[in-house]
């Protein structure tokens, strides 16, 4: 059963999932930064205020989240989706870029799921959050920054900022590593790591997920 508190708690969980404050989530969605503040949830006369369906739609679009994920937050389920890997304690799942584009290895939030993953040891893993995984570079499209065989440690759900190195998966199954130049609620601009490959401008509706690169094995 839907309730005022559960709806707002789901928004808080969505913000937490993307390492944002409620104000930061509103800002990312192009809303007034105070839209989700605690003070806005109850009117001055004591009436409960509900977030609009338009606001919820905008934050789902801005974070690449599905309505099913949002409903799971309303129902009080964990912010880490079912089927995701448990917190790592010394090894993390490893997949090649070509495999990553094939589908079936990730959930809608970019977290590892399903079968077929290898494992790689990563000494810093105990301090990392659940869902961190590794992607192995294949080919020369990321030279000179990353070479064939380099391993990138990726953190899905992390807040990304201009200048961050990121991995992006499109809804058509393309997986790419780029530098984030700009992101809005509607579009994302990506700078290529290899000058021989073009920069990319994508509509957010075409992006399945975006994850921050936090370490490389160079």
From TrEMBL:
Record's keyword annotation contains Metal-binding: no
Domain Peptidase S24/S26A/S26B/S26C positions: 93-214
Keywords: DNA-binding, Transcription, Transcription regulation
GO MF terms held by the record: DNA binding
One Pfam family in the UniProt entry: Peptidase_S24
InterPro entries according to UniProt: LexA-like, LexA/Signal_pep-like_sf, Peptidase_S24_S26A/B/C
The protein's name: Helix-turn-helix transcriptional regulator
Organism expressing this protein natively: Rhizobium daejeonense
